[in-house]
Amino acid sequence: MQILQCENLNKTYASGESAVHALNNVTFALEQGAFCAVTGPSGSGKSTLLHILGGLEYPTSGKVFYQGEELFKYNDNQLSILRRRRFGFVFQAYNLVEELTGYENILLPVLLDKKKPDEKHISMLTKLLGIDDRLSHLPSALSGGQQQRVAIARALANKPAVLFADEPTGNLDGKAGREVLSLLKYAGKELGVTLVLVSHDLSVAEQAERIIALEDGSIERDTTAAR
Ligand SMILES: Nc1ncnc2c1ncn2[C@@H]1O[C@H](COP(=O)(O)OP(=O)(O)OP(=O)(O)O)[C@@H](O)[C@H]1O
Ligand SMILES: [Mg+2]
Question: Measuring CA to CA, which of 60, 179, 204, 226 is 20 to 30 A from 12?
Answer without folding.
Answer: 204
